[in-house]
Structure to design on (141 residues):
C-alpha cells in the first residue's frame, strides 16, 4: 500500500512539474526575414557619412547602394535551400567618392563577385565569398 502511494505521489509531482515547464515562456528566435523583398543594410566597422550601403534582392536581380554608387546585377540561388548563391554582371554607376567610402564599395563588390554562400538568420543576412564575408541587418519595416 505504501509503495502504491509513493509511486502515485511521484507521478503527480512529475505531472505538476511538466505542467509548470509547459507554461514557462519559451525564448524563440523570430522567423527569418525574407531574402527577397527585404532591404539589407551593410554592417560596417566604422560609421560612414551619408546613406548606409544596402542591397535588395528580387526575381534574380540585385539592386542597391554601395555608399557611393548604385549597385546592380544578377544572381542565381540554389533551389534546395543549401544557401549557395552566385552573382553575375555586378556593376555600379561611376561616381568617385572619398577613400573610406570607396574602400567599402570595393569590398562589397569583391565579395559579391566571389560569393558562394548566403544565409538569413532572423533579421541578419551573411554573404560569404573567397574575398571575405559581408554582414547585413534588415531595415526596419
Amino acid at each position: 500500500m505504501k509503495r502504491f502511494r509513493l509511486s502515485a505521489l511521484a507521478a503527480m509531482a512529475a505531472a505538476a512539474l511538466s505542467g509548470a515547464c509547459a507554461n514557462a515562456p519559451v525564448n524563440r528566435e523570430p522567423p527569418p526575414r525574407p531574402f527577397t523583398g527585404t532591404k539589407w543594410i551593410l554592417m560596417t566597422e566604422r560609421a560612414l557619412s551619408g546613406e548606409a550601403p544596402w542591397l535588395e534582392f528580387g526575381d534574380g536581380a540585385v539592386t542597391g547602394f554601395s555608399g557611393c554608387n548604385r549597385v546592380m546585377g544578377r544572381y542565381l540561388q540554389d533551389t534546395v535551400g543549401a544557401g549557395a548563391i552566385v552573382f553575375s554582371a555586378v556593376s555600379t554607376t561611376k561616381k568617385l567618392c572619398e577613400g573610406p567610402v570607396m574602400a567599402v564599395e570595393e569590398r562589397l563588390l569583391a565579395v559579391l563577385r566571389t560569393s558562394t554562400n548566403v544565409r538569413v538568420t532572423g533579421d541578419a543576412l551573411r554573404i560569404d565569398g573567397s574575398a571575405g564575408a559581408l554582414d547585413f541587418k534588415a531595415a526596419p519595416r
Remarks:
- The chain has two helices and eight strands.
- The chain has a mean pLDDT of 87.
- The two ends are 64 Å apart (CA to CA).
